[in-house]
Each structure stands twice: as structure tokens, then as C-alpha cells.
Amino acid sequence: MSKFFSIDYLEGDFVLFGFSHVAALVIAVLLNVGMVVWLRRVKNEHVRVGFRYALAALLILQEISLSLWRLSTGTWTIGESLPLHLCGIAVILSAIMLVNDSYFLYELTYFWGFGGAIQAMLTPDMTYGFPHYRFFQVFVSHGAIIAATVYMTFVVRYRPTLKSLWKCFWITNGYMVIIALFNLLVGGNYLFICHKPATPSLIDALGPWPWYVLSLEGVGLGFFVIYYLPFGIKDLVTARRPKAST
């Protein structure tokens, strides 16, 4: 197996906010901006639909590639390798959303995509440095989640509402309960609710287990509010704008 796919990678560990990390973040931003600018100018709807399907395919194919890599390296386990973290389930839901043009799934992926994938790109749960396969896979997977949400928001012009925020919050809590039970059955740590990830992350600042799980509730809701805020402010300004006289 190529050294770039090996689990015993000796070319260098991932460095948080090192050159390759910052470069990946900058490229992700530029690609999303370029996507919006390009697709807003495209008049042919077939091109937009083709792009949506291609992005959906990328989401699914990279997830399949991750499972194949884990199987080939003997690291696949039921307690760690299923797409059950928020970003993992967001990959699946984002692909379905793009294909089916689903607003309900958009309500979930908007908050999960921005809240989870952006955090995952800023503090990846990964040790492999550039140019290992896992380095590319992590940034492609989370970058594609963000791109799907950006596409639906700025090209299709979907938007979340205050109802969307609370809907996503309660669905997230219900999902967490289900995953907690699944973790107990398989000895897993999906959603990081059994212990903290091994790599540095925001969770490190939230106290010891199990209290950091409660802290995550508040942090998650805070991020949901932040991501909704631009639309909430726009609605408030629109509501206060004087109506034209007839």
C-alpha cells in the first residue's frame, strides 16, 4: 500500500493551523465563493442540476472511500467507523437534500453543516498531515458539507427560520439520546458524548465528562443562534421598514 494511504504515516503529523491546514481552509473559502459567483451567473438550469448531482456524488463517494480505507487498513470498527457523528450523518442528508431539493433536510444541514463541519475543519479530529489520504478526505468531506449548504442558501436561496433553529435543536437532542444508547451497545463514542476526542478541540475547554456534554448543549445552541442571526436581523429590519402608502 502506498505510504500516503498507510496507517503508519511517517511523513509528518497534522499541525493545527500549520501551513497545510491554513491553505486548506483558504482553498475551501475560495471554492465556495467561486461556486456561488459562477452558479448565480449560470442561466442554464441543467448546469445547476448537474452541479448538485455531482456534489451529492462527491459526498457519498468520499464516505465510501473512507470505509474502504478503514477496511483495507484493518481499522474499521462498529464503534467508530459508521457515519453517525453529526458531520457523518450530515454527509448523507446533504447528498439527499441536493438530489431531492428538500427544505426539511436543509433546515438540519444548515445548522449541522455550518455548526459541525466548520468546527471540524478548524479543529480536525485527525493526526495525518499533508499529503496523506486522510488529510484530503477530512477536508473534502467537511468542505463538501459546507458547499452543499452554501449552494442551497446562496444559489437556490433557501433560508432558515427561527422555527428551523428550534426544530434542529430538538431533533439534535433526540438524535443524541439515540446515539447515547447505541454507544452503550457497541462501546462507541459517536458525538463524543462518552469521552473527549484525542485531538485538540473546543470540547477541551468545556470541563470534564459528563459536564462537558451539558456545556455542548449551550455551545451548540449558541452557534445555532449565531448562524441564524443574519436572517433574524434581516427579518427585524424588514418588519420595521415603513410600508409604502397606497
Name the descriptors.
single chain, 246 residues, mainly alpha, 7 helices, globular
| Count of discrete alpha- or pi-helical segments spanning 4 or more residues | 7
Largest sheet: none
Quaternary structure type? single chain
**How many domains?**
1
Q: How far apart are the first and last residues' alpha carbons, in Å?
A: 74 Å
Mean pLDDT: 91
The amount of beta strand, in percent, is: under 5%
- Coarse structural class: mainly alpha
Number of E strands = 0
Which regions contain 5 or more consecutive residues with pLDDT less than 50?
none
SSE pattern, N- to C-terminal: HHHHHHH
Global morphology: globular
- Percent helix among the residues? 55-70%
Estimated radius of gyration: 19 Å
How would you sum up this structure, described in words?
The chain is mostly helical and 246 residues long. It has one domain (19-240). The protein has 7 helices and no strands. It has helices spanning 19-41, 45-72, 86-100, 103-122, 133-154, 162-186, 211-240. Helix 2 (45-72) runs antiparallel to helix 3 and helix 6 packs antiparallel against helix 7 (211-240). The radius of gyration is 19 Å and the shape is globular. The mean pLDDT is 91.
Question: Layout of SSEs?
Answer:
Elements: H1 19-41, H2 45-72, H3 86-100, H4 103-122, H5 133-154, H6 162-186, H7 211-240
Helix pairs in contact: 1-5, 2-3, 2-5, 3-4, 3-5, 4-5, 4-6, 4-7, 6-7
